[in-house]
Every structure is written in C-alpha cells, then in structure tokens.
Amino acid sequence: MGRNLGPRIRRVVLSKEGLAHVERRGSADGSFELPFGRAELGEVLRSLVVWVERGEGRTTALAFDAPEDPDAVLAEKKLRFEPGTTLRGIVHAARGRRVRVAGSDGPIEGEVLGFEETTGGQGPRRWLLLRTGAGQIEVVDMASVRQIELADPALQGSLDVLVNRGRTSAGGDGRAVRVVLAGRVEDVRVLYVVPAAPFQLSYRLALAGAEARLFAFALVQNPLEEDLEDVELVLSSAQAAAASSDSYGRGDRQRDDETENATKLERTRRAHGQPATIRAAAPLGTLVALAGRAPERIDEADTMDTEQAAAELAAAAAAEPREWVAEGPVSIPRRGAAMVPVLAASVRVRKERIFREGAGPSPDLVLCFDNDTGVRLEEGRCAVYDEGRYVGESALGAAARGAPVRVSFTKDPGVRCHRTSRKDTTFAGLVFEAGGLIEQRRVEERHVFCVRSDHPTVVDVVVEVPRKDGRTLAGEGIMPIVETPRATRFRVEVAPRGEAKIEVREAWTETTRLAYESIEPGQIETWRASGRVDAAQIDVLSELSRNVEEARQFESERVRLDRDLVDIFTRHGKIAEQLAVLRDAGPEGALRARYVSELDAMQQRINPMEAEMRRLRDEADTRRRAAERALASLARSS
C-alpha cells in the first residue's frame, strides 16, 4: 500500500530567490505523510504550518524523519545487517532477551541463546537455541517457525529503530513529515517552503508586418519528491524579506558571499520565520513580505536616460505586481522540468536600423515596441521570427508596463555605413595665472556619415555617435532624435538603392599650461594675429618675453665667465705648484720669473671677472623680477 499523501498540492509559487512556496489543501481521513529530500527537511520544518479550515478533526503532532544518516544510526546500535543476514542479525541482537516462538509444534517461550546453521545434502538448516527453564535448552527448527514475538520492551524498541531507519535508508535521501490528524476533516491547509532552482524566462516574438505576437515561457523545475498534477503555478520575481530570527530562535546569519551557491543557500535559510497569521484566507503570495525589488538593468544606449524618466520608470515598476501566473493547470513529474507558457500578447512593433561605430558596416536591426502586455517583463533571451522564418535571437531587458522595449536581433546586410572625419584646431584664448598662463585651443572634428542602401524602398537609418565628456555634438542641418549621456542619435532617410550623407560636428577645448620662461616671441605674434588677446596684454607679454630673453642672455654670459674663471684658477694652481720647486738662479730662475709674471696677469683678470659676474647675476635677477611682475599684473587684470 502506498503512502497516504493527504491533501494534494493546489498551488506552487516559484521565486527567483531559490524558493518554492507550496500550498496543499483538501480533505483528509486520518494522518498523512509529506515526502521531502534530506537537504530540504530543515527548510520545511522552519516554514511548515498546518491548520484545519473546516471539519471536526484536529492536528495533534507533526512527526518527521530525523535528518541524520540512518545507516550510521543502525551501525551505532549494531542493527545494520548485510543483505541475506537479517535473521541471523536479529537473533544475535536478541541474545539474552525473552521471545515467544510460534511453530508447527505450538508456541515456545524462552531466552535466546544463539543461532546455528548446518549444511547438508538437502541444503542448509537453521536452528534457534532457547533457554526455556533452569538447565533446559530448546532447539527449534527455523523451518517450522512462522512467527517470533519479542516480549522484551527494549528489544521491541530496537525493532522499531530497525524498521524506521531501514525504511529511511532504503529511501536514499528521502525524508517524510507525518501530519498526525485525529479524525476526518473536510478541508485542511498545509503551507511550507522548499529550496528550488530559480525559474528562467525566455521569449518568442513572431512578426507579421506591424503586428507581432509576444510569447513568454518559463523554464521551471519541480523541486518536490512527488508529481505535480494540475496545480496553479505562480512565478514571483519579488524578493522575500529576510527574517531577523527563524522559528527556532536563531539570530541573523551572515551572508556567505564566497560562491553563488552559498549565497542562494543563505537567502533560502533566512527567507522565512514562523508565520504571524496562519488562518488567513488570502492566497499564499500574500504571506511573502516584499523587502524591495531587484535593480533593473537599463540599456542607456537604447533609452532616454534622464533623471525624470528614471524616476517615472522606478515608480511604475515598484507599484506593479512582480508575478507571472501560468495559463491553466500545470503538471510536472517528480524532479522533472518543463517549459510553461505564461504570456501571449499582441504588440505593435516598428523596425529600426541603428549604425554604431565599431560594430561593422551594416546597422543593427532593432525591434521597438511599448510594453502593453499588462505585466512587467523580466530579463530573458528572445527568439525572433519574421513571417514564420527564424531571423535571430537577442536579450530582452526588464521593462515596466508601458515602458519602451528594444530588441536588437540581427544585422541588415542591405545597408552599409562608413564614416570619414576631418579635424581643425584654432587658438581660442589665454588664461593668466600667477605662475604662468593657460593656452586654450578650440578643436572641431567634422564627421561625415555615408549610408548606402540596396533596398528597393525608402529606409530610415539611425546613426549613433558616441559622446565623450566635455565635448558637444551637433548636426549640420539635422536635429538629434535621442540624446543620452553616452550617445546622440540622428535619423537619416535613404532613397531606394540610393545614398545619403549627414555631417556631425564634434567640438571641444584643449588646454596647455605654459611657464612664463617658455613663452617665445613667435607665439606672442601668433596670439596677436588671432585677435583674441587684448592689445595691452600682448604688449605686456612682449615686454615679459624681452625681459625673459635678456635674463637668459645675462645668465648665459655669467655662466661663460664662470667657466673661464674656473680655468684661470686651475692654471693658477698648477703654476703655484711649479714655483714651489724652481730655483731662483740659472735657467730655472728665468722660468720662475715668467711664471710669476703670468700669475700677476691672472690676478689682474680675476677681480674684474668676478665683478662682471656679479653684475650679470643682478641684471638677470632684475629682468626675471620684471617678468614676474608683468605676469602678476596680467593675472590680476584677467
């Protein structure tokens, strides 16, 4: 006889948080069992709630298989027997205990001494040895035994352990929760949560002109140890609130971020505590507290990204439900999976061709429509069919009700685009500072986009130009249709098998910081010719440049004199060394006299050279200070 599973499953809510909320309800006649996997039992016990909605019966207990390893428990109690040795093992475990044996010769009662087995020509024979009285041993042929009654209570308990743990061991990782129900009830409710694989959504978009059919399918797995038959299936993308403590009084657990699986397990463990209300007639989804919503992925290249639009989308998404309901009852085999249809709606679509630099010469073919399906679309893959022919696949992003949706699914080889550019740089002005000046240059780059079409009809192509910080984009005789922080789009119409061009001007300012020592007269004349610098400022810059140049010349002359002076001192030192060893008479005396004359000449040159070097240093310092004062005056006047 199979297990009594009690009221059948009526509703299952699968969430993206890795949970399955199960609701059972119906009549029950006495106790029933709920099958689970060993790893699920902890979550079930933390969330399980049972109550009688209608009927005279009542729930008296919730019994469950211990999550421990049954084979380890049997081995610990010496009740784990190899196949074919169970009878021998039971008799061995019952040694010294009282049993009652019912055989062909009538009942025999005694204490078990042991078990014997002999072999012969007609096969093995088994004997049970019992002590039936003082000094009396009864040998019982097991072939005639039909029943062994365990009279000892302790032995009876061991038999219960053997049966219960043996059943659990035979079931592998299966476990059961037994709802002990006294009497018959017309309506009993059972709610619990089990871990489950998150569902995944995928879409199909079938085009037929300007109309399209949008289908959504959910890939779901049955996480239960039983078949799902004709159940209501709900898919929820709302995030469950984490309970501060579970039903056993344990505090918050720290989330384990080491691996994705560990994160999902932690979310599952923290997701539910003891329900505050258990007799609510509301559907199961109302028992889930919403802590917020998952952040949406917004393709900034495809949508208007302004603060107002983002706020409106966020408010709309927060106000709408985050659930999908399968169309009709769903049946999924135990631990099986299925693709469940959850949406079929008609939308009006339009095709756009978008050319992006670096993505090849052919533009992306994009389908655009408003989400008029009445539900919030979640992220998922989308296969596209055009007039019954498969044409591509792409990602469909999350979209609130009424929000625009864009699906880029393939390229249009009938259209080719390319870009040529020309850059011009002009002087824009000067900014004066105390330590130098900043030269500003206006840079303008003109991009010409050429679009060629092989189509026999007029086509529109959207040219997307990336935006960079500090730069402006403007079309020549054409207005942008969309501007985002990352790109500006322009629409160009191309005649049948024709060509069209648009020009986009990109402008920005470049700057170079110059120290006043590096300013050249040629630069000053260029600035004067531009007409963008005040004449008085040009005059001050010219004076500054002259002072800098004169200071540089004075410093150069001082450095030359300094080198000459070093040479003189070097020569002076060598001559002094020679005079120390030369005699006053003879040829050495003549040489000595010449050296003395040279030393006098050197001494006469040193003093004027040192004075000239001091003068040159002072002149250079005077010119530099004058240049600094000129630059400071420019900084004050700017």
Brief write-up:
This protein has helices at 41-47, 70-76, 86-93, 153-170, 260-270, 307-319, 521-530, 535-579, 586-637; strands at residues 9-15, 19-29, 32-37, 49-55, 58-64, 98-103, 106-118, 125-133, 136-141, 145-150, 174-182, 184-195, 200-208, 211-221, 228-236, 323-325, 330-332, 337-348, 350-356, 364-370, 380-386, 389-396, 404-411, 415-432, 437-453, 459-466, 472-475, 482-483, 487-494, 499-514.
Provide a descriptive summary of the structure in words.
With 638 residues, the protein is of the alpha+beta class. 27% of the residues lie in helices and 40% in strands. The protein has 9 helices and 30 strands. The strands form 6 sheets. Strands 1, 2, 4, 12, 15, 16 and 17 form a 7-stranded mixed beta sheet that branches. A hairpin with a 2-residue loop joins strand 8 and strand 9. Helix 7 (521-530) runs antiparallel to helix 8 and helix 8 (535-579) runs antiparallel to helix 9. The longest helix is centred in the C-terminal third of the chain and has 52 residues, at 586-637. The model is unreliable at 241-306 (pLDDT under 50).
Percent of residues in helices comes to 25-40%
Radius of gyration: 48 Å
Question: What is the terminal separation in angstroms?
Answer: 100 Å
* Structural class determined from secondary elements: alpha+beta
Question: How many H/I helical runs?
Answer: 9
State mean pLDDT (0 to 100 scale): 79
Oligomer: single chain
Give the beta-strand count: 30
Anisotropy-based shape: elongated
Largest sheet: 7 strands, mixed
Strand content: 35-45%
What are the low-pLDDT stretches, counting only 5+ consecutive residues below 50?
Answer: 241-306
